[in-house]
Amino acid sequence: MLAALSVQTTEEENESRRELDGLLLRVGQGDRNAFARLYALTRGAVYALALSLLHDCQEAQDVSQDTFVKVWESAPGYQSQGSPMAWLLTIARNLARSRLRQGGRQVELDEEEWNALPASLPAVTSEDRVVLQEALAGLGAEERQIVLLHAVTGLKHREIALLLELPLSTVLSKYHRGLKKLKIMMRGEEHP
Q1: What is the CATH number of the domain that holds 93?
Q2: How far apart are alpha carbons 59 and 56 in whole angstroms?
Q3: Residue 115 located in a structural domain
Q4: Is residue 125 part of a domain?
Q5: Contact status, residue 155 vs residue 83, Cβ threshold 8 Å
Q6: What is the pLDDT of residues 166-181, one digit of tens each?
Q7: Taking the CA of residue 120 as centre, how many other CA atoms within 13 Å lie in the half-sphere pointing to its CB?
Q8: Is position 191 within any domain?
Q9: Diameter of the chain by CA atoms?
């Protein structure tokens, strides 16, 4: 089960990045099939990020939809550089923050909503999901957010740091601390 949270190999990351990059370039040319594939591959990550910022399922769904509309409109200007997933999630983050500013609020997800995010991981069985949710409940709020964003979106730590506007060192330490706690909990040991 912890394999679902393990870091992808560099080759897999590069292949995924190339696929998303190619899809975005094709979307920029008006390819609806590429857009459908891009949506299928990234909708969970976009929704997870929107939910993490908005704390409201309906608003997160609205921002997710708005994100893909914006991606369709902006894709002709997309340039193949950096991380295509970070480009896409930056659009989602900006739309979510804009919605928060319009409403004059700043919110955080509660424990139950963060624990529900692993449901979007297709490789995790229902039995493993229950165990994983219980283990995630034992993490601190930022640790849980960083671990889930990495696992759900596949973003690198540097990209998560940019999205959450945290120092890279903070993201790395909280990620590693969170994984260490998860491993201890998964083995059934008590953690300090």
Answers
A1: 1.10.1740.10
A2: 5
A3: yes
A4: yes
A5: yes
A6: 899 999 999 999 888 8
A7: 22
A8: no
A9: 54
Query: How many residues appear in the chain?
Result: 192
Nearest to 186 by CA among 142, 141, 147: 147
Looking at residues 34-61, what average pLDDT do you find? 87
Q: How far apart are CA 152 and CA 12, in angstroms?
A: 15
Domain of residue 144 covers: 2-186
Report, as an integer, the average pLDDT of 90-97.
Answer: 90
Q: Token pair of 172, please?
A: 């790395």
Q: Compute CA distances 88 → 7, 58, 62, whole Å.
A: 21, 20, 15
Structure tokens at 170: 């903070």
**Which residues of the chain form beta strands (DSSP E)?**
none
Dihedral (C-alpha) 85, 89, 91, 92: value to the nearest 10 degrees? 150
Residue 28 in this model has a pLDDT that exceeds 90: yes
Identify whether 192 is part of a domain: no
What is the residue whose two structure tokens read 């979510």? 96
How far out from the chain centre does Cα 165 lie? 14
Number of structural domains the chain divides into: 1
- pLDDT bin (cut points 50, 70, 90) of residue 3 is very low
Q: Under a CB-based contact definition with an 8 Å cutoff, are residues 170 and 161 in contact?
A: yes
How many CB atoms lie under 10 A from the CB of residue 159? 22
CB 164 within 8 A of CB 171: yes
pLDDT tens per residue across span 121-159: 455 566 666 666 677 777 887 888 788 777 766 777 887
Q: What is the pLDDT of residues 64-73, one digit of tens each?
A: 999 999 999 9
